[in-house]
Design the sequence.
């Protein structure tokens, strides 16, 4: 997992290494400076030697300057390395998402991909910065402080050796205890966000059913749980600081006792043994060692939190697309002839129920085809196999006489324009959205496509026409307008095959008919596949397919199906009458 | 969302109101913090006492007596123990205080959200509101939980150490103060600069998040249009801007600490020099207790003290940025809480009644018979039977004051009638429904329910008497049964199942892995659009209201299923007043009255046959579907 993540470090390896090296220098400073301070007292003030005081003070000043330079450089490099690492991770994940197939996205879920690209990356950025700037400091600090302490006075330094393991054990105990509690906290956070999101989306439902109090109660239940879990976790963490104090104070008293005796023995003579200056320095080291331990425990705690983020990111980076590019790809699509040969399909390989079962179908190039059938009869699944949004489980689908799996993916999808059932517009102007279909489209071409999709009229009526800004998700256009824009966008691709998956459900019947007519008239050579709820939308098609439970139950023209297919007749009649009158 | 860069004292004051219930706990915490600070100050003083009083005097002795030293150490040990204990207690208490304050803030925010008018949700994106609960509350949590205790403790330490320093030497303290002043001035400049970078970072991360969210949700469209490369470049650009800003902001914030440290060392050297000269020259030293001689131990102690003085100041300066960010978040939260709530001046309520010899009597148990309880100015009460008669009387309405969406709408819906609205998107069909259940209030004219102006009816009671099925179905996380029971918490399982059968939802629900106990997640994402719509219809049926509004309820169901649903709905509609909004004419043909809306006005009304006979707009719409022939 860590190796996967580190691959994204790339150009920031040097900065990371430099940060680590600089942090080693910083530690050295933090060790030398107290030594210098002690010497200043011992050899300067103590002996009344002002030249020595000046010497040490000057040294201290220089050291402080060095510390400033090193510290600031390491701070900047560290920040740059971690921000760069985070940016690379995000880009790598996003790039990988672009290669993924629909089935991968279904499996991972859009919401979870978004979390990985946002919150998880931020967690890693913070943890990485902490890691390269702090993690190395703690151990080095401890080791150096120990060495110097031992050299100053071995018997006193033994006190550290006794205290450190005790403290380390207790700290790691706290961290280990805290970890599962915080994992629970984060899960509860998800619940909380979920309730808020559901309420934002469904506020009309909540209000119409008078469920405000019920929702508040639900929310309070969750926020109470967060309060409890968080409190529990943080109370455990609250042990850290007093624990450190206890250790520090114990150390100080022990050092003072042993130190006092040693000073008395040496007569405060540096040549003979411990001096008061040494004692001051020893106590400073004691504090430094314990602070480093605290810092290490913090880094450790942070890493445990970042760990789950790292796992999620690695999972996305390692996700392989379910749809492979062929080795010897075909780069040209002859025409819009489509053939389904014994096609079976299921969304998950282990699912026992086939969504499509033994479908055989031939559509000639330029034909218009309507598909009708009940919800769940796999109409969408059938057409999604044509641009290889999913791959068949058995059998094969051909386009222009070539298996769709043999085409270059961009070629195939460029030739097949599909308007999805759940379609999206993106923030940007109308023209920008439409140019998704063809980046180089001229305004004339755009207008022509909109004219066909019956969108020209309402776009022209908008305040800024084709330059009108579309809000995120197309929030400022109505459902019907959005659908027409999506159709125009698909038309701009000048496709060989056009698939409209229930794309006119929010458009009124008259406009729907106008669109169908325009398609027939303007793009006669394009194969048109239209999935619809309304028989009226497909009535005039060259061929109508009636789907039932993953199988094709009938194929024919409107007139023929009215005679031969009871399902079709039933649907048609119900729509003619308007509901089942009793 | 508005940006509040400047420090706002009202925000702090308001934040403190959430801490008010804990004021005694806070006082207790402060006491503990003081005890702990005193102990830690004592620990730096201790070294001086130890050296000067116990070690130096014994230096020359042949047989030093250590009992004094032992006593001193034991006393210190006791002080330390109390200090550590106090620190543990205040850390624990502080967590509880912070978390319960946050709980209150979250609860208040959500409660407020439930009280806001629909207008608010129209004007604000979900993302903006969501980030109040996530980003803003989170930064606030960090501030209250971590910074607040540290702030109190830092201030206590600073004050305590300050007096200790004065006790040793006034002159040297003055020197420290000058250095601290310089440090503060420089920090202020750095904080200001890094604050600007932080703001830039926040903005670019917001842009980045918005882009990611939009693109990932439209990922399938990206694939269908082979737009992968453009999407990558789009992210790359934003990512790059963010990287620069984040590196700068963090770089500045990180360099704060080494900078402050370096100043601390310089200060140390300066004090040592001045102190050294004073000690060697034997200058008269002014302590808090008068003039004395600056001893060796005193300088050592003073140096340690000066570190303890600078450290908390550095810590506060170091956290300045996160405190400012948190306060900006708090300001946004409070702005949200100050939004105008949905008002309700209604006083007419819906009560259960029983019919006693033609007279309606209020009763507490459910009788199945409902009436409007209408108190009048003269103190009398009248009961009007709930029937479902709705009258719109010359209603005008506009979402914005200067732009009317509906003009002069008048209609009468008798109990049990089916009224349909037909018209192009944007003609104002849904707006009428929004006015009847008072998501919005009419600008002019009146709406009457059973003869009572709906402005007089309490909103909760009005909405209880109206069932609504919308085109966009919203289900909630929970079992199917819980979702069905949403409109009527008292409904029995049998009633819910009966309603599901009525809406033809029973069949597929039973096919779900756990039947009615299947847990729905993520807005019922495992179900098809049609199935979700069936559940929402059954949900409305469980609520059993006398008036139903079906807003494009069947447009996402295929026509074959629609026929089944229609059959269920016809059963459901029996005896109820129903408003149907549809663009599919087949669903409205059997309505008692069809209203054709165009640009906010009713341009035709009548039954299907009548309108067809009239050969007007409806006729053209109706026949338009068959022009294909």
Sequence:
């Amino acid at each position: 997992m860590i190796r996967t993540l580190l691959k994204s470090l790339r150009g920031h390896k040097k900065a990371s290494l430099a940060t680590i090296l600089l942090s080693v220098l910083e530690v050295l400073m933090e060790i030398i400076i107290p030594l210098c301070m002690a010497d200043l007292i011992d050899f300067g003030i103590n002996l009344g030697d002002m030249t020595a005081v000046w010497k040490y003070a000057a040294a201290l000043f220089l050291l402080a300057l060095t510390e400033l330079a090193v510290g600031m450089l390491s701070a900047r490099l560290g920040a740059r390395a971690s921000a760069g690492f985070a940016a690379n991770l995000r880009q790598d994940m996003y790039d990988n998402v672009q290669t993924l197939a629909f089935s991968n996205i279904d499996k991972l879920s859009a919401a979870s991909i978004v979390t990985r690209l946002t919150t998880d990356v931020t967690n890693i950025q913070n943890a990485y910065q902490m890691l390269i700037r702090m993690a190395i400091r703690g151990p080095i600090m401890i080791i150096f402080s120990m060495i110097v302490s031992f050299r100053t006075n071995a018997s006193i330094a033994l006190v550290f050796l006794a205290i450190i393991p005790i403290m380390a054990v207790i700290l790691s105990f706290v961290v280990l205890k805290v970890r599962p509690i915080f994992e629970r906290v984060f899960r509860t956070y998800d619940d909380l966000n979920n309730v808020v999101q559901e309420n934002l989306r469904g506020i009309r439902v909540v209000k119409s059913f008078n469920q405000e109090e019920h929702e508040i109660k639900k929310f309070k239940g969750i926020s109470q749980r967060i309060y409890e879990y968080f409190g529990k976790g943080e109370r455990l963490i609250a042990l850290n600081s007093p624990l450190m104090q206890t250790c520090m104070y114990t150390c100080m008293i022990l050092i003072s006792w042993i130190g006092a005796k040693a000073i008395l023995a040496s007569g405060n003579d540096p040549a003979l043994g411990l001096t008061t200056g040494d004692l001051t320095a020893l106590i400073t080291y004691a504090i430094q060692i314990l602070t480093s331990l605290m810092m290490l425990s913090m880094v450790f705690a942070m890493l445990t939190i970042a760990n789950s983020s790292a796992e999620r990111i690695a999972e996305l980076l390692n996700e392989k697309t379910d749809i492979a590019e062929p080795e010897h790809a075909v780069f040209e699509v002859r025409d819009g002839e489509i053939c389904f040969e014994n096609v079976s399909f299921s969304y998950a390989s282990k699912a026992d129920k086939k969504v499509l079962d033994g479908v055989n179908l031939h559509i000639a190039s330029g034909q218009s085809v309507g598909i009708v059938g009940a919800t769940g009869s796999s109409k969408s699944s059938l057409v999604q196999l044509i641009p290889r949004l999913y791959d068949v489980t058995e059998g094969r689908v051909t386009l222009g006489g070539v298996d769709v799996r043999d085409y270059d993916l961009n070629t195939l999808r460029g030739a097949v324009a599909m308007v999805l059932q759940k379609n999206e517009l993106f923030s940007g102007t109308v023209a920008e959205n439409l140019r998704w279909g063809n980046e180089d489209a001229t305004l004339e071409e755009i207008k022509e496509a909109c004219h066909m999709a019956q969108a020209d009229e309402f776009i022209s009526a908008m305040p800024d026409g084709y330059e009108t800004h579309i809000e995120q998700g197309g929030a400022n256009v109505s459902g019907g307008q959005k659908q027409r824009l999506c159709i125009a966008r698909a038309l701009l691709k000048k496709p060989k095959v056009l698939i409209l998956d229930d794309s006119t459900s929010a458009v009124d019947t008259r406009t729907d008919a106008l669109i169908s007519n325009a398609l027939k008239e303007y793009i006669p050579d394009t194969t048109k596949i239209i999935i619809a709820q309304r028989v009226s939308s497909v009535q005039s098609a060259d061929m109508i397919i009636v789907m039932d439970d993953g199988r094709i139950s009938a194929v024919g023209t409107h007139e023929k199906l009215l005679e031969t297919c009871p399902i079709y007749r039933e649907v048609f009649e119900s729509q003619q009458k308007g509901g089942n009158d009793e | 969302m508005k940006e509040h860069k400047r420090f706002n004292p009202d925000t702090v004051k308001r934040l403190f109101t959430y801490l008010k219930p804990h004021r005694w706990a806070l006082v207790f915490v402060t006491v503990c913090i003081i005890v702990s600070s005193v102990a830690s100050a004592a620990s730096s003083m201790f070294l001086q006492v130890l050296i000067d009083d116990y070690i130096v005097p014994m230096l020359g002795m042949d047989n030093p007596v250590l009992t004094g030293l032992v006593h001193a150490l034991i006393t210190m040990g006791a002080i330390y123990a109390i200090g550590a204990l106090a620190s543990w207690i205040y850390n624990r208490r502080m967590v509880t205080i912070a978390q319960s304050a946050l709980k209150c803030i979250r609860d208040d925010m959500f409660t407020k959200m439930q009280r806001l008018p629909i207008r608010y949700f129209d004007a604000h994106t979900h993302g903006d509101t969501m980030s109040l609960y996530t980003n803003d509350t989170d930064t606030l949590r960090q501030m209250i939980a971590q910074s607040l205790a540290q702030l109190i403790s830092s201030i206590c330490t600073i004050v305590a150490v300050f007096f200790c320093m004065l006790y040793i030497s006034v002159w040297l303290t003055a020197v420290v103060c000058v250095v601290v002043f310089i440090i503060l001035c420089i920090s202020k400049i750095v904080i200001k600069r890094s604050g600007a970078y932080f703001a830039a970072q926040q903005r670019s991360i917001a842009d980045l998040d918005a882009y990611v969210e939009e693109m990932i949700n439209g990922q399938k469209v990206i694939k269908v249009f082979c737009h992968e490369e453009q999407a990558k470049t789009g992210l790359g650009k934003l990512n790059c801007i963010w990287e620069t800003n984040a590196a700068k902001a963090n770089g500045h914030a990180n360099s704060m600490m080494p900078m402050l440290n370096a100043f601390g060392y310089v200060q140390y050297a300066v004090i040592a020099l001045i102190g050294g000269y004073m000690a060697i020259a034997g200058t008269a030293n002014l302590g808090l207790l008068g003039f004395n001689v600056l001893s060796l131990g005193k300088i050592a102690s003073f140096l340690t003290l000066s570190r303890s003085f600078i450290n908390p100041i550095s810590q506060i300066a170091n956290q300045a940025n996160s405190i400012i960010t948190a306060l900006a978040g708090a300001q946004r939260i409070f702005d949200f809480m100050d939004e105008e709530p949905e008002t309700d001046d209604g006083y007419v309520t819906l009560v259960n009644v029983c019919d006693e010899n033609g007279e309606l009597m209020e009763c507490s148990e459910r009788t199945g018979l409902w009436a409007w309880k209408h108190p009048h100015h003269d103190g009398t009460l009248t009961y009007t039977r709930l029937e479902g008669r709705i009258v719109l009387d010359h209603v005008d309405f506009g979402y914005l004051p200067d732009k009317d969406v509906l003009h002069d709408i008048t209609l009468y819906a008798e109990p049990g009638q089916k009224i349909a609205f037909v018209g192009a998107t944007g003609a104002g069909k849904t707006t009428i429904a929004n006015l009847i259940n008072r998501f919005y209030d009419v600008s002019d004219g009146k709406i009457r329910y059973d003869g009572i102006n709906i402005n007089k009816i309490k909103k909760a009671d009005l909405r209880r008497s109206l069932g609504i099925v919308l085109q966009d179905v919203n289900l909630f996380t929970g079992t199917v049964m819980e979702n069905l029971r949403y409109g009527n918490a008292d409904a029995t399982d049998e009633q819910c199942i009966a309603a599901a059968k009525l809406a033809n939802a029973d069949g597929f629900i039973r096919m779900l892995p756990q039947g009615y106990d299947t847990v729905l997640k993520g807005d019922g994402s495992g179900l098809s659009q049609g199935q979700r719509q069936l559940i929402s219809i059954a949900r409305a049926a469980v609520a059993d209201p006398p008036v139903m509004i079906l807003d494009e309820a069947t447009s996402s169901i295929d026509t074959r299923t629609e026929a089944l649903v229609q059959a269920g709905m016809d059963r459901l509609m029996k005896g109820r007043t129903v408003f149907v909004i549809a663009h599919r004419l087949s669903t409205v043909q059997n309505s008692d009255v069809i209203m054709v809306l165009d640009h906010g006005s009713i341009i035709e009304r009548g039954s299907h046959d009548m309108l067809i006979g009239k050969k007007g707009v409806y006729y053209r719409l109706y026949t338009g579907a068959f022009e294909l022939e």
